[in-house]
Amino acid sequence: QVQLVESGGGLVQPGGSLRLSCAASGSISSFYTMGWYRQAQGKQRELVATIVRGGTTNYADSVKGRFTISTDNTKNTVYLQMNSLKPEDTAVYYCYARRAVAGIHSGYWGQGTQVTVSS
Predict the structure, then answer these.
(1) Nearest to 31 by CA among 94, 78, 92
(2) What is the pLDDT of residue 89?
(3) Of 42, 20, 23, which is closest to residue 108 (Cα–Cα)?
(4) Residue ranges of the chain with pLDDT lower than 50?
(5) What is the pLDDT, as a whole number, of residue 99?
(6) Which residues contact 85 (CB under 8 A, 6 or more apart)?
(7) Backbone phi, psi, residue 10, to 5°
(8) SS3 assignment for 29-92
(9) 17, 37, 42, 75: most buried by Cβ count inside 10 Å?
(10) What CA–CA distances, in Å, run from 71 to 18, 23, 53, 118?
(11) How far apart are CA 97 and CA 33, in angstroms?
């Protein structure tokens, strides 16, 4: 069973930075897409950023130019570098990964990590 474990959340002042990490229990090369989603209190979960095999990235308009998604295959980890944080970035951030094995596509979620942007 695949496990995704997020870390790196916390409390930061507006304008500050955080780097989230998502460590997979196995090789991330088996996933054809990985990403970060977030869910603010009382709101639906929304896509933040994705990266597909080959390195193409996609970002929500609200985070373009401020957030960067990347992977380190040697550490089986996907990162989300978040700069110029705003109070509206406050949410629980979830790591997501999707792969196909024997033609069966499966998605996996981490447990989430809280990011709070406040002065």
Answers:
(1) 78
(2) 98
(3) 23
(4) none
(5) 93
(6) 12, 14, 15, 16, 17, 18, 66, 115, 117
(7) 160, -165
(8) HHEEEEEEEEECCCCCCEEEEEEECCCCEEECCCCCCCEEEEEECCCCEEEEEECCCCHHHCEE
(9) 37
(10) 16, 10, 10, 28
(11) 6
What is the structure's pLDDT at 113? Answer: 97
Report CA torsion sign: 29, 31, 33, 35: negative
CA atoms of 88 and 93, how far apart (whole Å): 13
Beta bridge partners of 12: 117
Backbone Cα Rg of the chain = 14
**Partners of 35 in the β-ladder:** 50, 96
Residue 112 tokens, joined: 């989430």
